[in-house]
UniProtKB/TrEMBL annotation:
Protein name, per record: Methyltransferase domain-containing protein
CDD domains the record matches: AdoMet_MTases
TM regions (residue ranges): none
Record-linked Pfam families: Methyltransf_23 (PF13489)
Length: 377
């Protein structure tokens, strides 16, 4: 995982997506809807959306709170000026100071990890930096671990009495030795190198018939979800929830509710073909398992988590005697390697087809094992 701490790093990482933020992140739309549902926003409440990018959550929040204050903050000026502005306009909303209170959304350029974020928000909006709900969705995992604890403490200080933070956290796994003192630090805050797990692979088809316009005016093929493959076992999401709960408790917050991310089905139908049954799978070699996966049509909703567990246990000797943390890391690593090859192959074929003016090609992207949680004081 690449961590971003300065505005220069944030802009370098995301500047190329300006004008196409919501098109590229179409797979995160269900997560935005789930975050809004979890927050249970009420008319008149105040909202802060950190890392607002294309403005999906900010727009949904404004529709829910009416004349309540909604602020979207991002470190990429282009996201605010192009993507979020266009998205708000498409929902009948305006960028402050334009419009009436029921339409107006404040868009603020800034760094989430800024120690003076409270003063910055108050200065830029002309309103007290105090919020009923703070959203931090698909952002926390990009923050350096050593800065996450102080960030959560600052966000806690921005809440009104009874306020809540709706935040996503990706599960972290490591093969590095952990010093005894570091074991007392929640996993989400440990500076020791960790990696994230692939929860699922989403395959989308570039429609040969349908098009849509991006925020920068480009006309692009509509992206239609056509297949999703779950790659991680459910217990890894349980680990993500426990990690989030420990991080919250460390800063004086409590986890009220949690929802899995990285396993959304996009309404796709469960396919009839299923992985080899356990008795057959037990006798298959790693090569036979990989060959079986390579031959499958990535359509509909499928669960391959048992296959990746089988690959992992064949990759090291003495699997049953290994500590659980070691098994988890091997599983995560094996899955990452296979998914990287799968996505890379589909991307290359799609690139060649698009060069030839063809549509109907498939592209793939992976979603991390993560949880969306509501935190309260």
């Amino acid at each position: 995982m690449v961590y971003l701490s300065t505005l220069a790093q944030v802009r370098a990482a995301y500047q190329h997506l300006v004008g196409k933020a919501n098109y590229v992140s179409h797979d995160q739309t269900p997560d935005a809807l789930r975050a809004i549902q979890m927050a249970q926003l009420q008319p008149g409440e105040s909202v802060l959306d950190l890392g607002c990018a294309g403005g999906k959550i900010a727009a949904l929040a404004k529709q829910a709170v009416g004349s309540g204050l909604v602020v979207g903050l991002d470190g990429v000026p282009g996201f605010l000026a192009v993507d979020a502005t266009a998205h708000l306009a498409s929902h009948g909303l305006t960028v402050a100071p334009a419009g009436d209170p029921a339409q107006r959304v404040h868009l603020v350029k800034g760094n989430i990890t800024d120690g003076n974020i409270s003063k910055h928000l108050a200065l830029m909006t002309g309103e007290p930096a105090c919020y009923n709900v703070i959203f931090l969705v698909h952002v926390f995992e990009t923050i350096p671990p050593e800065q996450r604890c102080s960030l959560l403490k600052r966000l806690k200080g921005l809440l009104t009495p009874g306020g809540r933070i709706v935040i996503s956290m990706s599960a972290r796994f490591t093969n590095e030795p952990i010093a005894s003192l570091e074991l007392q630090i929640p996993v989400q805050f440990r500076p020791v190198p960790h990696t994230e797990a692939v929860g699922s692979v989403l395959v989308t088809t570039l429609s040969p018939d349908l098009s849509e316009a991006t925020a920068d005016g480009a006309v692009v093929p509509a992206r239609i979800p056509s297949g999703i493959v779950q790659t991680a076992p459910r217990y890894l999401w349980d680990a993500a929830t426990k990690q989030a709960q420990a991080a919250a408790a460390h800063v004086g917050l409590r986890l009220v509710q949690a929802a899995q991310l990285g396993a959304h089905d996009f309404g796709l139908i469960q396919v009839e073909s299923v992985p080899p049954p356990p008795p057959l799978l037990a006798g298959m070699t790693a090569l036979e398992i990989a060959t079986w996966m390579d031959r499958q049509d990535l359509a509909g909703r499928q669960d391959w988590s048992q296959l990746f567990e089988a690959l992992a246990c064949r990759s090291v000797s003495g699997w049953t005697s290994l500590p659980q943390a070691r098994c988890d890391f091997v599983l995560v690593n094996e899955t990452q390697q296979y998914v990287a090859e799968l996505c890379g192959g589909l991307q290359e074929r799609a690139k060649q087809m698009l060069k030839g003016g063809q549509r109907g090609c498939s592209m793939a992207a992976h979603n991390q094992v993560a949880v969306l949680v509501e935190l309260r004081v």
